[in-house]
Each structure stands twice: as structure tokens, then as C-alpha cells.
Amino acid sequence: MSLTRPPAEFSALIAELRNFMDTVVIPSEDLKTAHDGDAINKQASELRVEALKRGLRAPRRAVSDGGLGLSWEECCFFLEEAGRSFLGPTTLQCAAPGQPDIAALEKLASPWQRERYLEPLARGDIRSCFAMTEPAPGAGSDPRMLKTTATRTDSGWVINGDKWFISGAVRADFAIVVARSDAGVSWFLVDKSNPGFRVVRDIPTMEPFDAGGHGEIRLENCKVGPQALVGEEGKGLEHAQLRLEGARLFHCMRWIGLSSRAMSVAQDYAAGRDSFGTRLSEHQMVQSMVADAHISLYAARLMTLDVARKLDRGESIRHESSMAKVFVSEAVNKVADSAVQIAGAPGISEDLPLSMILRMLRPFRIYDGASEVHRAAIARRAFSKRLSA
Ligand SMILES: Cc1cc2nc3c(=O)[nH]c(=O)nc-3n(C[C@H](O)[C@H](O)[C@H](O)COP(=O)(O)OP(=O)(O)OC[C@H]3O[C@@H](n4cnc5c(N)ncnc54)[C@H](O)[C@@H]3O)c2cc1C
């Protein structure tokens, strides 16, 4: 167990969070404003004032930096609760892409970068995005296909390239741009106000809401100073792996919470609706979907917890985080799909939050590594390292 505080104190914190989610955050949800990033951000900022009064702060940030300083294991409980509402993670300062960007910059940022980017980002004064994926023929699943270049000049670097599906880009104040320099793949901090940086469009997706959109970006003769380089030149792929492993785990935690809520809504529906002379909840095929959802989420929680504990112990999680990501992303999608099925026609409407939850969860089987890419990597390691299943 990696608890940062006595169990009773931690239980009280989670009980407070659950109460806040049930009595304040979930009742504030308005599925109509869920499509409007500006409205979500405004609402989340207002809710954050109340959260802070209750001692509910950025879970992973150090206490000395104004956070709760929770371990990865403790975050499993915190983020599952926060994840039950689409407003929760933004309100509670644990939404992507900000949270993984903060975690990465805490490890890699220079003192100048800390002051200029990390501190205001962690306070919620500015927003970030992480720009790695490129349109064909650039990098998607295969990062070795990266085409964006960073060329060294007398006064810093000039970056050229195209990025897309960059979460948060539309409302971000700066981007962490992944580009190829002489020494290999490297990270650079680029202000949105840089004349060489342009968000070409917000790509419409099936996701019902995203506080910052999914931007397509053009970097054209984008000049940055020498201080824009993050960490060591040429180590960008290692940095990305570091960022991604934590980001992936946080997504598992949040989406377990959201799919669990979907099944609760479906169970309530089944308990109150009759068909063929009995309650839906009495039909064995409905019971089977409910039972399978409970079994899947139980396994998903345990896998996520195990990876979190390994991270707390400083162990490598490369193999386990791949396995957990595939399992959890597929499990939460199946649970949300069953929830829609159980609720019948209202399930696909926006009278209930179910169809929205399903649309939020579907892309998780693609981002942070598509299921097929993880399966290929798991099998490769199994053969090359002769791992037992
Ligand atoms: C909602 C959302 C948010 C995103 N946010 C960001 C972001 O903030 N920043 C960012 O940089 N990127 C982001 N992305 C992009 C994401 O990282 C990529 O979509 C992902 O890496 C896959 O790349 P691709 O879409 O180019 O798919 P491709 O690489 O073209 O692959 C397409 C499909 O082919 C299959 N496939 C690929 N390789 C293999 C293989 N080796 N074996 C078997 N099958 C394979 C998989 O089914 C895969 O889904 C986001 C994507 C989505 C959907």
C-alpha cells in the first residue's frame, strides 16, 4: 500500500469528494452546455471555488505546490470519483492534457520554464496541449515517422511541420511540440501567440464535449529561443513514453468512474421500467449485462491499482500499463455500450447521459496507443523476453 496519510483520513477525503460529486457537480451538469468548451471551462472554474473550500485540490501535485500530494495508488480512488462527471476532472484539476503535461514538466522543466509555463499551468491560469501526432505521411501510431523538424539557428530553433488531433489546442496558451532535431526527437515549448504557430481548425469528432477541442496545427518558420528546448535534446521519445504512461493510467481511472456511472444509471432505469409483465431488472439477459459490467469493472480497477502501485514503487510499468490500457479501454466501452442497450431508446438520447458517455469513451481505444498497437507490443515482449502469461 502506498498511502500518503492515515487510512481514515484518506477515506474521509474520498467521502468528501463523493459527496461533492453527488450533491454539487453531477446536479450542475447540463448536457446542452456539454458541447460548448467555453461554457464547460467557466462552469468548472466556478465549481473549483467550492472544491477548494472543501480541501479538494489537484490530486497529484505536491502539497508544497498547493496540491494534495496523493500517491498513484490514492489517485485511483480520487480520479475514479472525479471521473464520474464530465465536469469533474476539469473542476478538480486532474483533466487531460493539463495533468500529464504538468507531471512531465515537473520532471523536465528548467527553472525558467517552471516559472514561465509550469507554475501558471498548475495554478490553472494558462492551458497547455501536447502536439505529437501528424497527418499522413507523419507520425501516428509509429513515432519513428515524425516529420516535424526543429533546425538549430544562431538564436535558437526554427520549427516546421503539421500536427493534428491535438487535444486542448484550440484554447491552449502554449504547446509542447515534438519535433526532429539533429540529435533526434526533442520537445519544445511554443507559445500560441508565436507568429509561426497557427491552429488551422478544430477537428469535429464524435466526442460530445472537449474543453479545448482537437486542433490541427501548422508550424511555419516558427522561431523559438534556446530556452524552449525541454529536457535533453534527442530524448523526446523517452520523455513522451514517460508522459504517456502516467497519462494512460489517469485515463483508465477517470473512465472507470464514468462507465461505472453509466451502469448505475442503466440499473436505475432497469429497476423502474416494466416489459413483458415484469421489471427489466428481472430479465436474465439484462441481469447478465449488469453482472458482466460489474465483473469487468472489478478487474479493470484491480489492474489499474496494480500498475499504480508499481509506479509508486518506481518499477517499470511498460508491459503492465499496455495490458491495463487495452483491458480497461475495451471494458469501459463494453460497459457503456451495455448501459445504452439496457436503457433502450432513452439510452441513445440526451435525456440520459449514456450516449454521451459512450461517445466520450470510444476514442480511448485509439489514443494513448490503439489496442492493436499495444497487443503487438505485448506479444513482441512476450516472445523476445520469453515472458510467461
Ligand atoms: C480523441 C483523441 C485525442 C487525441 N489527442 C492527442 C493529443 O493531445 N496529442 C497528440 O499528439 N495526439 C493525440 N491524438 C492522436 C493519437 O495519439 C493517435 O490517433 C494515435 O497515436 C494513433 O495514430 P493514428 O490516428 O494516426 O492511427 P494510425 O497510426 O494511422 O493507425 C490506424 C489504426 O491502424 C491500426 N494499427 C496501427 N498500427 C498497428 C500495428 N502495429 N499493428 C496492428 N494494427 C495497427 C490500429 O487499429 C489503429 O487504430 C488523439 C486522438 C484522439 C482520437
Protein model, in words:
The strands form 3 sheets. This protein has a 4-stranded mixed beta sheet. Strands 2-3-7-6 form a 4-stranded antiparallel beta sheet, with no helix packed on it. The radius of gyration is 21 Å and the shape is globular. It has 3 domains: 7-101, Acyl-CoA dehydrogenase/oxidase, N-terminal domain (Butyryl-Coa Dehydrogenase, subunit A, domain 1, Orthogonal Bundle), CATH 1.10.540.10; 128-230, Butyryl-CoA Dehydrogenase, subunit A, domain 2, CATH 2.40.110; 237-384, Butyryl-CoA Dehydrogenase, subunit A, domain 3 (Up-down Bundle). It has helices spanning 7-28, 37-53, 72-82, 88-91, 98-108, 111-123, 236-272, 284-312, 318-342, 344-348, 354-361, 371-384, and strands at residues 128-131, 149-153, 156-167, 174-181, 184-191, 197-202, 214-224, 229-230, 274-275, 278-279. The protein has 389 residues and is an alpha+beta fold. A hairpin with a 2-residue loop joins strand 4 (174-181) and strand 5 (184-191). Bound molecules: flavin-adenine dinucleotide. Its cofactor is FAD.
Write the layout of secondary structure elements.
Blueprint: H1 7-28, H2 37-53, H3 72-82, H4 88-91, H5 98-108, H6 111-123, E1 128-131, E2 149-153, E3 156-167, E4 174-181, E5 184-191, E6 197-202, E7 214-224, E8 229-230, H7 236-272, E9 274-275, E10 278-279, H8 284-312, H9 318-342, H10 344-348, H11 354-361, H12 371-384
Parallel strand pairs: 1-4
Antiparallel strand pairs: 2-3, 3-7, 4-5, 5-8, 6-7, 9-10
The chain binds flavin-adenine dinucleotide (FAD).
